[in-house]
Structure formats: structure tokens, C-alpha cells
């Protein structure tokens, strides 16, 4: 079979009257500092070009309508469709948009972050390179006590004396970087020398993810129950993508992040006005939080009546 020459390929060109612009305004990098040594940088977006008068949201509509042109020019119709798609969990059109980030964060944040397995990641390797002399060191105000209701989190600030003891402890741990550096100079391999470093040391990676999975990450990591340090990164990411896909971000806020999901038992409790029909303590606590957020009245208490003497007999 003869090879197909490029001159034989029929290319459907975009109409000459269609104008496009760079959604990142010609910049190669939008970077925001996080904490003392961390950062999040948006380094690329797909699509990078959008029709003039629209945003990158147009790619969601294009995918939903399986169209190859610039799509409808009625932006209000596009917005309604995007909101419908998100509201009814038609997720695949949102996967047509991708973002690539360069993120620098402490290792303990990276380990939480990587649990979201729906992105392409390439991390800095401490086997090939020397770890930087940079550590996450919170302020005394950010030293939190263990939460009494959430075993995996902290809540209120601890007392000043304990906070200072914790910061002194971090100083001691960070001082071990000098030993790490000296051992490297003496020939200890980087892959072994690194194992003595604390999880407060900084790492970095390139992180590429589609919009559907990014929204899932943001819904969990922007939530008030998430650890404050990773929440700071999630809020930064959201601020970076919002100018590029404002319609999708608005739908995310309205239908996911600031919405309330009700279970069957919770719906029954609303209809009946009675307490949640469960003996599960965590379910009850979650429902009480939702009830207060919705401004619903206290449930009607069901009084236990004593059986009459006749019934007892």
C-alpha cells in the first residue's frame, strides 16, 4: 500500500470568520504562592483557544452536542445546558477540559493529595535529586488541638505553651537536614539518605487532570472537614481555573460544593417531622448538622406510653 501523502488528506478548516483567543491570555504560567515555600502554578489548559465571546466552557457544550464547529453563539443556551449536565451528573463532557499544574507542597500534603488517583502525576524524585532545605513550619496560631469529634483532624488552637513546644520540636527535626546533607557528601546514596527526612519537607510534581475529576477533588478538599493545609491548595486551584471555566465553576458551587445531599432516611424525617429512623450515631449527627443548616425545626419527640393494667394482664 502506498503511503498517504499529506496533500491527499482532506482537512476541514475552521471558517475564516471564527476568531479565537488564548484562555490564559498568552501567559505560559499563572502562579500563586501557598504558605512559605509552596505554590500552585497553572501551566496549561486544554482547550487553550476559545471562540471570541465565549470561555473554555464551550468545549463542554461542544462535546455534549458532538459538534466540531464553534458551537452555538447563544451563550445563555450554553450556560443552561452546562448547568443541566452537571445537575444531572452527565460527567463525560466535563472530561473534555483538562488542566496541567505545577505544584510544590510538603510531603504530608502530597500523600493526601495522591489518594485522588484520577490524574496524571510526575513527582520530583529524591532518588535522583537532593531534597531541598525547605520545610512546612506553621505559625503558633495554626497549631491545632486534636478534634474530639473527628479522629483524623484538628480543630481549635492549642494553648500557647504547647504550641511553642510543638514548634521547638519541628526545629529539632528540621535541624537533621544538616546530617542528611553531610551523609550525601560522604557518599551515602540519595535513595537511602532521604528516608530520615520528615514529611514536612517539600516535594513537587506536575499534575494533569480533567475538569470532572478536578471538581471531585475540589469538593472533598475545599470542604471544611478537610485538613486546613491541603484546603489552602484546593482553594488556590479553584481560583486559578474559575476565570477559564466560569460557567462550570458556578454549576459546581451551586450543585455540589454548596449543596446538601439528602438520604432516604433524611427525606422521611423531613416529611414526618420525626427523628431520623436509625440507631447509628454518626448518621444521626450528620442529619442534625444538615437539619440546622436547612433551618428545619426540632423533630417531634415520640413519647413512650405505659401499657394499661388491662394490657399488662
UniProtKB/TrEMBL annotation:
Positions of transmembrane segments: none
Superkingdom as given in the UniProt entry: Eukaryota
Composition skew (Polar residues), residue ranges: 303-313
Record carries keyword Methyltransferase: yes
Chain intervals with Basic and acidic residues compositional bias: 280-291
Keyword Acyltransferase: no
Keywords for this protein: FAD, Flavoprotein, Methyltransferase, NADP, Nucleotide biosynthesis, Transferase
Protein name (record): Thymidylate synthase
Originating species: Heterostelium pallidum (strain ATCC 26659 / Pp 5 / PN500) (Cellular slime mold)
Upper taxonomic lineage: Eukaryota, Amoebozoa, Evosea, Eumycetozoa, Dictyostelia
Amino acid at each position: 500500500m502506498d503511503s498517504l501523502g499529506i496533500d491527499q488528506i482532506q482537512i476541514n478548516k475552521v471558517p475564516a470568520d471564527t476568531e479565537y483567543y488564548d484562555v490564559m491570555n498568552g501567559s505560559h504560567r499563572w502562579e500563586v504562592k501557598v504558605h512559605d515555600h509552596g505554590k500552585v502554578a497553572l501551566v496549561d489548559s486544554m482547550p487553550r483557544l476559545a471562540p471570541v465571546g465565549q470561555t473554555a466552557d464551550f468545549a463542554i457544550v461542544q462535546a455534549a452536542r458532538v459538534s466540531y464547529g464553534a458551537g452555538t453563539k447563544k451563550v445563555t443556551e450554553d450556560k443552561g445546558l452546562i448547568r443541566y449536565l452537571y445537575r444531572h451528573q452527565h460527567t463525560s463532557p466535563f472530561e473534555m477540559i483538562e488542566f496541567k499544574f505545577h505544584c510544590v507542597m510538603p510531603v504530608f500534603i502530597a500523600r493526601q493529595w495522591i489518594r485522588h488517583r484520577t490524574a496524571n502525576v510526575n513527582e520530583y524524585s529524591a532518588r535522583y535529586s537532593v531534597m531541598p532545605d525547605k520545610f512546612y513550619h506553621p505559625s503558633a496560631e495554626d497549631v491545632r488541638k486534636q478534634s474530639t469529634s473527628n479522629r483524623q483532624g484538628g480543630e481549635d488552637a492549642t494553648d500557647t505553651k504547647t504550641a511553642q513546644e510543638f514548634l521547638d520540636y519541628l526545629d529539632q527535626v528540621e535541624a537533621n537536614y544538616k546530617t542528611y546533607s553531610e551523609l550525601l557528601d560522604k557518599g551515602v546514596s540519595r535513595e537511602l539518605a532521604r528516608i530520615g527526612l520528615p514529611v514536612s519537607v517539600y516535594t513537587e510534581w506536575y499534575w494533569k487532570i480533567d475538569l470532572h475529576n478536578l471538581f471531585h477533588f475540589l469538593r472533598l478538599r475545599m470542604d471544611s472537614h478537610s485538613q486546613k493545609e491541603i484546603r489552602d491548595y484546593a482553594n488556590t486551584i479553584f481560583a486559578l481555573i474559575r476565570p477559564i471555566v466560569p460557567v462550570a465553576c458556578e454549576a459546581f458551587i451551586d450543585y455540589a460544593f454548596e449543596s446538601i445531599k439528602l438520604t432516604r432516611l433524611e427525606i422521611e424525617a423531613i416529611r414526618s417531622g420525626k427523628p431520623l429512623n436509625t440507631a447509628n450515631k454518626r448518621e444521626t449527627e450528620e442529619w442534625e448538622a444538615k437539619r440546622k443548616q436547612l433551618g428545619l425545626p426540632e423533630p417531634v419527640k415520640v413519647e413512650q406510653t405505659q401499657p394499661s393494667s388491662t394490657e399488662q394482664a
